[in-house]
Amino acid sequence: MSTDLSSPSKRRRQMHRSLRTVGASALLMLLVVLLPAPTLTARHDAWHMPMHLALETMAIVLASLVFAVVYSSARHTRLPTHVLLLGHAFLGVALLDFAHMLSYAGMPVFITPNSPDKSIVLSLAARLLAALALLGAAMSPWNGQAPPAVRGRGQRPVGMIIAGFVVLVLLLALGAPALLPTAFIPGQGPAGWKIGAEVLLIALYLWAAVVFCGHARHPHGTDARRLFVASSLMAMGSLLFALYEQVTDLTVLLGHAYTTLACVFVFRAVFGQTVRRPYALLHASEQRLTATLNALPDLFFEFDGHGRYLRLHTGNLEQLHGPTGGVQGKSLAEILPAEAARTAYAALDEAREHGVSRGKVIDLGEAAGNHRWFELSVSYKRVQDDQGERFFMLSRDVTTRQRDEQSLHLLSEAVEQSPVAIVITDVQARIEYVNKAFTRNSGYTQEQVLGCNPSLLQSGKTAPSTYRAMWERLGKGQSWSGELVNRDSAGREYTESVLIYPVRNPQGAVTHYLAHKEDVSEKKRSAERIQHLSQYDQLTGLPNRSLLQEQFLHARSRSESLALLWLDLDHFKDVNDALGHSMGDLLLLEMAHRLRATLRPQDMLTRQSGDEFIALLPDIGQGELAQLAERLLRTLDQPLQLAGQEIALSASMGIALYPDDAREFDDLLKNAETAMYRVKQDSRNSYCFFTPAMQEHSARTLALASALKLALARNELHLVYQPQIALEDGRVVGAEALLRWHSAQWGAVSPAEFIPIAESGGLIVPIGEWVLRTAMAQLVAWRAQGLPPLRIAVNLSAVQFNQVELPALVSRVLQETGARADELELELTEAATMKNPQAAAAQLQRLGELGVRLAIDDFGTGHSSLSYLKRFFLHALKIDQSFVRDIETDADDQAITGAIVDLARSLGLATVAEGVESAEQLAFLRARGCTHVQGYYFSRPLPPEQFHTFVQRSEREGVRAA
């Protein structure tokens, strides 16, 4: 043990103090034992558990510290045998006490359910180990240092025996709790064997105390006196543990308090031996360290816990920021710039928490722009309580290194974050570096490609000549650029735009190759998509007009004859309006499929727009072309199911031949379109070849359309009126207003020619309004001239009828002209009403509410629905002249005409027969009950003045045949 050189009298005083401590503790224990039983056994559940945990925790910590100081000192110096024994044993005591604390009733389950038995057994085992350790320490030789064999490997047998004991106890208590004997009987107290165990422990502790008391007389007896006190307190604690009745009794807590206090004395005894002796060695070490620090070229500082300079170890104060002297006693904040001070304080905090801090860098010239960087290495030391904390800082000037690192970091980050893949290889093309863009594009990690050849990316799609050209240039020390088709780690092919150039050393020799690689796959796909969009129809996938023109130029150079076939679906707009555009798109897809399947493999089918398709047919004769056109018509005519309905479409086709009809693409295309429109006008569901006459007709149509735009402004339009006769009494009851155009350039133009032009060109609405206003103004003028009441019939085109503002226009015209509503009859065709019957019914309702009469013109020539007809707000049906023309001889015309008259009569409608030209026709119509007629038999359409005269004569003489 320690060699105490104090006088015998001082040793006696110390021994008396130890005895007084033991005596006071025994007296306190006696008082507690003599207290009334209710006081001792009173339950203190509210505070027993916290107090128990606190005392146990303190005992565990102290026992652990005993081991810690012994273990730490034994690594550096030889210790007496009893010190080593106490160090190892009290580690076991700490572990067993910790398990005892966790096993206490009321604590969370510790491996197996907690119980008083488990907790008591673990506590007994811990105190038994402490008793044996104290007795062993007392019996050890007390002649100073332990022999050399005890240091190092000599510690292991003792440690292994103690560890085995601890493990055995823990396995028994925690692994097989059922094998534990009953240590505590509720309501009675400790079991008999437990009391016997406590008596055994008391004996062991007192034995150790007597031996320690004998050692205390010697000069080295300071630590023996502390162990004497510890053994005595342990004995008293065991006595108290044998006397309680409930685990929450006051005696239990006092027993733990005695045990904890005993651990304090054991720790003081061990601490005195393990720490005091190294002080002399530490002083010598400090002297050597000071000499070493003074020789260092770096700045070395010592700081207190508040960051104040205590000592400097440097002769180069110019490295400091600010004044060159007087730093001692000042804080880091007073000496360093603000940011540098914050970094230094952070290093102190890190060292305080972890013991050391390395790598933090401060900038002492940041404010002045003259940067000087210092790297800080800080260690922390906790000194005696009156001195607080100490920090030791080594400050190394790393300005040059920091500047180099910044430059290198900037370059590295630029390369690493570049969106372009960068690869560096040696002259043998072995990869030495790749950046993130490369790994992102290729899918390979840096570890996978280092040392490999870039050929691992080859897909086999790049021509070998490309690689030969690349290495030819690189072999000459020249750069190379081009495109490579590579394959990533997942097998995806992608195209890279690559630039490779050699890297040379200062002597000019090529040492590496550097490649910039950009993935241009998406750019190429985008370009291809743009090209596809510009050359292909998005709905059908067929080529469009631009690609058709390219193919025409190509085919023209190889073929002597070509044909362009322009195909337009008939009445496709009706399908779109009835079923919607999505169904219309499906129909177009089906038609495109049928056309492509019918055409020859060498033919090119394109979609122009809407429902128009154009086919380029190379090397085909006119006869074969006609047969192909008929096959196409039959193919398209096959019905198909669409939206639950059976749809059958026809088509109109126009054909133009190269070089007969035109030599240039645009001219040939225009001629094919012209032929198609001729089919539309004539019959539909057919085809025809282009002729020069069609071109003349197209030119005339275009010229008429231009002239018609100026016809109103030039007063070239006028109205004529055809009388309508009532068969009941032969009177003139009205007239149909008919539009005529006499062009200054073209002369008289037939309505059959210019009205379709007006409808297709959007002129029919303003012309229709002019007709309505002119007719009503003329009617008012006739009335003022004394003519009897008349009714004027005005034709409405489908475009006019579908105008939302039509009722408002009619009302406004009647008001402005002064005509009465019942003097106006509006005529519209079946096609106009049946296109959208529900909307037509609503429009007719609004017009009827104005008071005007409504008539269906050319009835029987369209596709009427009688279910809708009875819902329409009508006054008359007009029988088309095609049924009247052969009514004397044609039984079908007679039947149809009679049916129309009968239908009108049953619906309460008047009938007006058009085109009556003979007495026989008139007689038949009168006999079948037709109410009104008009036609050349009575009069041609007349100008206003002649119509006025016709009506006056009819009033005087009656209506006569013309």
Automatic annotation (TrEMBL):
UniProt domain GGDEF: residue ranges: 560-692
Record key words, sorted: Membrane, Transmembrane, Transmembrane helix
Annotated ranges, domain EAL: 701-955
PAC domain segment(s): 478-532
SUPFAM superfamilies with a match to the protein in the record: EAL domain-like, Nucleotide cyclase, PYP-like sensor domain (PAS domain)
Ranges annotated as spanning the membrane: 51-71, 83-107, 119-138, 158-180, 192-215, 227-244
Superkingdom of the organism of origin: Bacteria
Pfam families recorded: EAL, GGDEF, MASE3, PAS, PAS_4
Boundaries of every PAS domain copy: 407-451
Protein name according to UniProt: EAL domain-containing protein
